[in-house]
């Protein structure tokens, strides 16, 4: 059910499960809500809408009640342009308006109203707060996110510089491009982070009004670049993970690097197709698939997040988890039976685990975005820190991968020399036996 009458100042929709779980429901909408105007004047906040009062008698208190709320601002004030609105309920325990259990209201330009959902049934209203409005200042999370993403980018650049320097100074210990192919997953993530920072800073510096929800041209272009590299990152990580599965689970025949090239080309086209669908839908304004979030990011709307983010990322995450199970099983069998003096397969075990851990960490991190759409502010704040930390770990994964690849490459001459020594001993022993 949807409320489409633009003349309604306030409305509420209770979900079917809640209705079926109640013995009685009473709903009052107070257009003239003067008794509530002075109940909580802390932080200079004020009542901005009609008040919706819900009275229910619940059969089973264990079930969750979901209510969708729609508010129009009754008394528009120019000073409110510098503030922020929040869906709140009146908490009788502390005698204050509280946002716990309610999502951040989204402004619907078509009907000139704010829309949100709450997970309980009490007394609701739209509250204006001047102290929450100043989104032109970066929060601690914003600054931490930029720092962590930048560290990951610098780690990848450091790896490339070290590899190139080593190649120039010593041809013996230098690695060719084929040895560094697994780092393509890190390269795609690094490019993603660069465009993500560019998108955030572009939106932050070029938006002025808190009510502005439509993405402008440059932000839309950067957003689709971010989305392309997001899908490409998960495709490449999954492809390299599958290639590692072929090498360490299905040992024979050993896959050629041509197969990896084919997988990467397929990854590129999958990313192009997904991005093309997103651009196509966005070209029709009636679909309304993108919006500005708090003057800091242009991204998919809450309704579209699950189609363009949750489903594809969930698929990639599942594939990587399945790969981890098969590779871990093969590694355990090898650890029990193998006796390699140079620990070759021990390093390969570490390589696969680091690679797949990177993919899973990014998958979990980016899935936090859709989760933020239906959790309260406190939980959302904690989950946002998880995304920041997982993003920062990408630099650690990159350095670990490079160290493992380099160590494996350095061991090859040793294995060659030891192999020659064993061959000479075998030939000498054969000659002595013949004599």
From TrEMBL:
Membrane protein topology class: Multi-pass membrane protein
Pfam families per record: GPS
GO CC terms of this entry: membrane
Gene Ontology MF, one: transmembrane signaling receptor activity
Keywords carried by this UniProt record: Membrane, Transmembrane, Transmembrane helix
Subcellular location: Membrane
One biological process term in Gene Ontology: cell surface receptor signaling pathway
Principal place of residence: membrane
Any coiled-coil regions, as ranges: none
Protein name per UniProt: G-protein coupled receptors family 2 profile 2 domain-containing protein
